[in-house]
Amino acid sequence: MNKIRQILRLYDQGKSKLTIAAYLDISRTTVRKYITSLENCGLSEREVDSLSDSELDELFGKIKDKPRYESQKMLALQRCFPKMERELKRTGVTKGLLWEDYIKEFPDGYKYTQFCKHFTDWQAKVNPTMHRTHKVGDKLFVDFAGEKLSYTDKATGEIVSVEVFVAILGASQLTYVEAVPSQQKEDFISACENTLHFLGGAPSAIVPDNLKAAVTKSHRYEPTLNQAFEDFAQHYDTVVLPARAYKPRDKALVEGAVRIIYTRLYVPIRQKQYFSLSELNVAIREYLALHNNQLLKGRTYSRRMQFEEIERKELKALPIDRFELKQTFHAKVNKDSHILLGPDRHYYSVPVRFLSKKVKIIYSNSIVEIFSKFERIAIHKRSKVPHAYTTNNSHLSSSHRYSAERTPETFMERAEAIGEDVVLVIKSILDSQRHEDQKIKSCEAILGLVRKYGAERLCGACRRAMDFGIDTKVFRTIESILENNLDGQRENVFSTELDMPSHHNIRGENYYK
Fold first, then answer.
1. Rounded to whole angstroms, how far apart are CA atoms 269 and 289?
2. In angstroms, rounded to a whole number, what is the distance separating the alpha carbons of residues 167 and 140?
3. Residue 335 pLDDT more than 90?
């Protein structure tokens, strides 16, 4: 409005249109239009100058809003724009291909640069957007491509379709692509984790779509996240900021990255045949490296160069351990103090005081944790052997614990605590061909003698018994030696050359002759 007032004042002072145009740095045509409008409105310069800005705008607004003449060439181009906008949403369609079709229909039409400029201007008018500057190390945008890739099963010849995961950093636009079997949370989280290790760090936030693997219930302000994905984010010290439902502009970067990979990855990949998912991903990584190293249009640097220069150092360090996806299962403690983990059909022990109670099981690929009312009551290494038992003996009752601890290892430990001669006898029993129950009974009986006779006398009796050989009645032999004081305490009256059968019950004074 100030410019208009200056034009009118200078004109009232008798200045020429050329002088006014030069003084105000505007075109003579514009000056002439405002002066003509002043002369036609029937008001003096002073009356016009007394008008408010809104009244002045209403008086001279027609001049600004008067539509310019559009050439027939421009009108023909604008009629093509709605169809072009729809075509660009299709896989593999680019502005270059659309311009080639346009120039075939209108040979004297606009060149490619003007064609793109007019189309961009038209889009800005009918569908305005806001430019957003992304902070380095701030956000990682993730999504699945709409079009799938596939490989051929070598054994059956079946064509197997796979999903394509795409991720892009906001500032450097470094892109990651991976083919995964499905969009389920296991594959989605695995792809996100592989992305972070590809980047060598974690951003401040991850921006996914509202797929079920990431968001259980969408909401404009406080969406409900999938618990597993939220645990993944906490493990890598980042947060999840889901895009608004049906608002693709919230993740426009990854939407654009998907359109780019359709031409730079999909086209060359579909020209070859692959026989496994890993083989397909090897090819994807090769073309992805070319994409990230290619110079950006109109710039002297690539995505990779920009990432290494400004964004890598801003990412958070990754934890030492990779994330393990945890799942939940509920069960009731059996009377044998074990619970059944349904997916593996494997049994795990819990403390005996929780018999018949319901517990919550949280398990990962390596660990099984059991909770009762927010208290962790047991933890085990995961075993996938069906119908087998993993038992912590401390969970059992005293009688069951005693039975469970009667193993060859525990017998050997007890024997070592007594003496070397006892170890030899116990080892001979365990190595024999006898039934397991017979071995256990004999070992338990022999080791129990230490309470009555002491370690020294038991060692002497075992040393004597070894001279006669170990047979099924070794306990009775050792017991007889101890009862008759033949365990080395009266060595002077006992001949080591005595041919005493090991099955004999050594009793009576006649053996001292």
1. 14
2. 7
3. no
- What tens digit of pLDDT does each residue of 409-468 get? 888 888 888 888 888 888 888 888 788 778 888 888 888 888 888 888 888 888 877 776
C-alpha 154 chain-centroid distance: 29
Per residue in 175-202, pLDDT (tens digit) is 999 999 999 988 999 999 999 999 999 9
Residue 125 has a pLDDT of: 73
Q: Residue 148 contacts by C-beta under 8 Å, 6 or more apart in sequence? A: 161, 162, 163, 164
pLDDT score of 222 more than 90: no
How far is the C-alpha of 262 from the C-alpha of 68, rounded, in Å? 40
Q: Can you name the residues that pair with 141 across neighbouring β-strands? A: 168, 207
Helix spans in 323-449 (H): 398-404, 408-418, 420-431, 436-448
56 dihedral zone (left: phi>0; alpha: psi -120 to 50; beta): alpha
Q: Which residue has the tokens 């070592």?
A: 416
Question: How many Cα atoms sit within 13 Å of 87 on the Cβ side?
Answer: 14
Q: How many angstroms separate the CA atoms of 416 and 428, rounded?
A: 14
Kindly state the tokens that stand for 202: 């974690």
Q: Model pTM?
A: 0.55
